[in-house]
Amino acid sequence: MQSSSYSIDQYNQLPDHPGVYKYFNETDELIYVGKAKSLKKRVSSYFNKNTGVNLKTRRMVREINRIEITLVNSEFDALLLENNLIKKSQPKYNILLRDDKTYPYLLITKENFPRIFPTRKYIPKRGTYFGPFASVKAMNNVLDLIRELFTIRTCKLDLSPYKIDEGKYKVCLEYHIGNCQGPCVGKQGEQDYLKDLDQAKHILKGNLGVAKTIFKQQMQEFAENLEFEKAQKTKEKLDLLEKYQAKSLIANPSISNHDVCTIVMDEKQAYVNYMRVKSGALIVSKNVELKKKLDESEEELLVTALIRLQDQFNSDADEVLVNIEIKDPIEGLNLFLPKIGDKKHLIDLSVKNALFYKKEKALLLGLNQDKKDRVIRQLQQDLSLPEIPDHIECFDNSNIQGTNPVASMVCFLNGKPAVKEYRHYHIKTVEGPNDFASMTEVVGRRYKRLIEEGKPLPKLIVIDGGKGQLSSAVEALKELGVYGKMPIIGIAKRLEEIYFPGDSYPIHIDKKSESLRLLQRIRDEAHRFAITFHRKVRSKNAFGTQLTAIPGIGPTTADRLLSHFKSVKKISQASEDELAAVIGKSKAMELIKWKEKNKGA
């Protein structure tokens, strides 16, 4: 492979060769990765088309500043390289599979008398991994089968030959109940142990037929040697394996090593079902959702999902069954659309899964959307608001005995907390414990800033408090000339009374109402946010007061010490050298002297 870089004006000079192209913007951020049978034709199509191109594609083309290409031998190689680059960089204009799960594997360790156990961490040097498994249940079913068929050890002992020879270990309960043959005390040789492990590997790969053949041969040999008890045990294992296969069977066993990938779509999303089938048994079934980025075709979305899922589940399929006609076949990717027979039944089953997944997603989205809309619409009705309150801001003050007065503002968008919009306020213009004046200050500061920055005002302001705090907030809005442009209410804690400006009597919302619960949640969140901030400020100031009582330590030095050591206790435990590194030698000596002087105090 070779890579080259081109300016945006040089796209016509690209080679007529298979490869991968990467688009970078002015800040040299990778924004898109694509593959092509002919780089020249594919890349030129982005810049030469004036019609039939959607807005997102035009927006992306306007961002392109530099093009980088990598030549490969075939379109299939380009497809694999494209997948790796997207997985690594996740460019903003590429299709991304919506799946943040970490899937489990079964690991056969690289050690004497290897073990088999489940893990979610993929560290290749530890041994051989099988999977990933789409569900923990499917993985445990296979693991349970292997442990019933074979005597694979489960202990974590280091079974190096010299440790076994030295007699360092004793057999455990697993040996006494027949689940282990005691390799730790030399009762089973490693070569004999590895024969069982090889059979387990065939089962993990889905090759149940190999394991069945070996069991049949063993059973025949035991019978010929008149070892009927061993023959019976082997027959029981064979029956167990056949029972497991019968449960897993969904198709004709002649369908030996196939992937199935089907797609259903709506305007913005695509839903893909992927299945791996070996000897008629379903090994993996996985649904994924894709969001169209640049008006990609059904074929592009299917191939993109297929390559990533095959990579994720380590597929070695001979053929992939699909449910759509592939107009542009990719050499090296064996796709087949069956019309009749067992393979068509597999396609029907896969499409059924994809449609169910689509319906499930739509239902979930609809339920969430309906509930969200229902609550804020109910709030609009209960408070007789002119607009749906999809943007609510709530204020609360916090001070204890007039010390360290602070305030908070929390923001809810569409009935959900918008944490990035939360704000803390130090009270600057008010002296002493005056909640009303503090409320006037913070409400004024908040909306003065929004007006200056040209940002949208909320559809509802909530003040944590009764008529006094509400009047103070109204005063701030009047000074800014925005009173009446957005509804404002106060909510008193004791009886959950709702006050409107100018009204002598409060209104009461049904205690069981979802709209009241939303207001309570917003109010409680503002209170929590204010209290947390107040504690932090109070604690910091308390630490500062302790430190500034020490001769030679002023507020700046105290702040520097607290920033570095985080607490007075850690400062008191620091050595002179550690203190000197932060505040200098002379001040460190003063601090050490003070500590020594007050040691017994």
Tell me what you see in this structure.
The protein is of the alpha+beta class and 601 residues long. It folds into five domains: 88 residues, GIY-YIG endonuclease, CATH 3.40.1440.10; 144 residues, no CATH class; 104 residues, Nucleotidyltransferase, domain 5 (2-Layer Sandwich); 147 residues, Nucleotidyltransferase, domain 5 (2-Layer Sandwich); 49 residues, DNA polymerase, domain 1. Helices cover 46% and strands 19% of the residues. Strands 13, 14, 15, 16, 17, 18 and 19 form a seven-stranded mixed sheet that branches. The protein has a five-stranded mixed sheet with strand order 10-9-8-11-12, with helices on both faces. Strands 1-4-2-3 form a four-stranded antiparallel sheet. Helix 8 runs antiparallel to helix 9, helix 11 crosses helix 14 and helix 14 crosses helix 15. The model has no long low-confidence stretch (mean pLDDT 82).
Q: Topology of this structure?
A:
Blueprint: E1 2-7, E2 19-24, E3 30-36, H1 39-48, H2 55-63, E4 66-71, H3 75-89, E5 105-109, E6 116-119, E7 127-130, H4 136-149, H5 161-165, H6 173-176, H7 190-204, H8 208-224, H9 228-248, E8 257-265, E9 269-278, E10 281-291, H10 298-312, E11 319-322, E12 335-336, H11 341-383, E13 391-400, E14 403-413, E15 416-417, E16 423-426, H12 435-453, E17 460-464, H13 467-480, E18 488-492, E19 497-499, H14 514-548, H15 555-565, H16 568-573, H17 576-583, H18 585-597
Parallel strand pairs: 8-11, 11-12, 13-17, 17-18
Antiparallel strand pairs: 1-4, 2-3, 2-4, 5-6, 5-7, 8-9, 9-10, 13-14, 14-15, 14-16, 18-19
